[in-house]
Structures are given as C-alpha cells and as structure tokens.
Design goal:
Blueprint lengths: L1 E6 L13 E6 L2 E7 L3 H5 L10 E3 L5 H4 L2 H6 L11 E5 L4 H9 L11 E5 L6 E3 L2 E7 L7 E7 L10 E3 L8 H6 L4 E5 L20 H11 L3 E5 L8 H10 L3 E4 L5 E3 L1
Parallel strand pairs: 3-4, 4-5, 5-6, 10-11, 11-12, 12-13
Antiparallel strand pairs: 1-2, 1-14, 2-3, 7-8, 8-9, 9-10
Helix pairs in contact: 6-7
The structure holds zinc ion (2 copies).
C-alpha cells in the first residue's frame, strides 16, 4: 500500500497547506480518505477524480468534508450515472450532506455525480482490493478511524495502515493501530490550553499522546498529522519521542509513504 498526504492542516490551516486529505492506494485500488478545504487542488496535481474508486469521510467536521463541493465541481459528469463516484460517509450523516449541497445553491447538487453510502460503523468497508475496518474514536462529533489493509498480487495482506481520524486519548486508538506498520495519527494540540485538560473529554491529541498511543499499540512507524506547523515541527517530534522510541515523523504534504 501507499499513502500520499494531500493535506496535514488542522481546522485552522497551516499557511499554504490543505486540511485533512489522504490518498491510499493498494491492490490496484485508489481511495481518498477525507476531503477537507484545499484537498482537491492538491489531488488534481496527481490524479483526476475519475481515477478514484471511492472517497471515505471519517466525520462531518468541515475540515474533513467541505471540499466535497470542490470535488463535485471537478467531477461534472452530468447524466453519466454509471460513472458516479462512491462517497462513503459516517452513519447518520445524510442530512448534513443535503445541507452541504445547499452551499453550492442546489439541494440536488451532488446527485448526478456522487453516490453517498453510509457505513454502519462496525462492518468492514470493501473498496476494490482495499478493506477499511471502522473504529469509533473519541471526538466532538461521531467519528470513525480506520484500519486499512489491501489484497492483490503485489500486496501483503498483513500490512496495516492505521488512521486515527480526529480523536482524543481513548482505547479505540489501540484497536485501530494494533501493531500497524504505519500509524497516521492526529496531533492537533499545541498545548492543553486549546482543549479540555481532562483526557476523557478531549477531542484531540498532544504529540506526546500520539506517541503514547503508538507505543501502546506497538506500531512500527508513527506519522503525525492534522498538526499546526507554524512553529516548525521539531517541538512535536521531541514531545512524541518522549513516549515512543520507534520511527516517528511529521506528515509532509504531497509526500508518499510506502506501507
Ligand atoms: Zn473533527
Ligand atoms: Zn479535524
């Protein structure tokens, strides 16, 4: 499998960078996981939208889904229903998609280009040769992270890409990332002044907590994302390494990572 980072920004973007958006390729399948503001402009540097097999949205916060409108403008195949793009969304989010469509001025804005499918929050999602196991995280709205594997002649089905989505410290992270080869983990907090100090009511992680989650899950490699970088990234690496002595990096926009 291969992960390509299109955007690593938290909700308040890093200058010149997109919010959450990741291309995952494996077994001749290609998906886009999350599509926050700025992601489609980055996607178009490398892929046209018809080269995607599906889009998967972790949760309905705008920094993870707002560029669905931009994606639709890049995918204007009116009346070519057989080519509609599958967009997999969290359980219970269809009403919000109708509201989002109104942002473009039409209630049926998405209808001829996208097919929206709610996953059920439990069963694996199969897209071609990619398989995503959803796991609900701790966040301010219902959110699912994913444990991703691939099948195919050139794939080792035991390789695991784990994605935290947005999450505070919680047990779900250990299940998502259990012995993963690459753990793409959010680290959105610069300090606890930005969130509730109590871990159980937190919706995001400090880099030290991303490191702790990586250590607890026994992952082989930690890639921190959804991270503010206006002060550089060395502070975050230093904090994460206190808890986790494995390979740790900060996600770089437009860089690909082999899993
Ligand atoms: Zn969020
Ligand atoms: Zn977010």
């Amino acid at each position: 499998m291969r992960l390509t980072v299109l955007g690593r920004s938290p909700a308040r973007p890093n200058p010149g960078e997109a919010c959450a958006g990741y291309v995952v390729e494996g077994g001749n399948s290609r998906i886009l996981v999350d599509v926050g503001p700025g992601v489609v402009a980055q996607l178009l540097r490398r892929n046209t939208p018809d080269e995607l097999d599906a889009v998967v949205i972790s949760h309905m916060h705008t920094d993870h889904c707002l560029d669905l409108i931009t994606l639709r403008y890049s995918y204007p195949w009116i009346d070519v229903a057989k080519h509609r793009l599958t967009v997999i969304v969290p359980p219970g989010s269809m009403g919000q998609l109708s509201d989002l469509a109104l942002g473009a001025g039409y209630a049926n804005f998405f209808d001829k280009s996208f097919v929206f499918v709610e996953h059920d929050g439990r069963r694996p999602i199969e897209i071609g040769n990619l398989r995503l196991e959803p796991e609900e995280t701790q966040h301010y709205v219902r959110t699912w992270g994913f444990r991703i594997t691939a099948n195919g002649t050139d794939e080792d089905p035991n390789r695991v890409l784990a994605y935290s989505a947005d999450s505070g410290p919680c047990d779900a992270l250990s299940r998502i990332a259990d012995t993963a080869d690459l753990f793409l983990c959010e680290a959105a907090l610069r300090s606890l002044k930005e969130d509730d100090p109590e871990p159980h009511s937190r919706g995001h992680l400090l880099p030290s907590e991303a490191g702790e989650a990586a250590r607890a899950a026994g992952v082989k490699r930690l890639l921190m994302t959804h991270i503010p970088v206006t002060d550089g990234t060395s502070w975050a690496l230093t904090e994460a390494r206190v808890a986790y002595d494995g390979d740790v990096e900060v996600a770089e926009p437009l860089r690909s990572y082999e899993v």
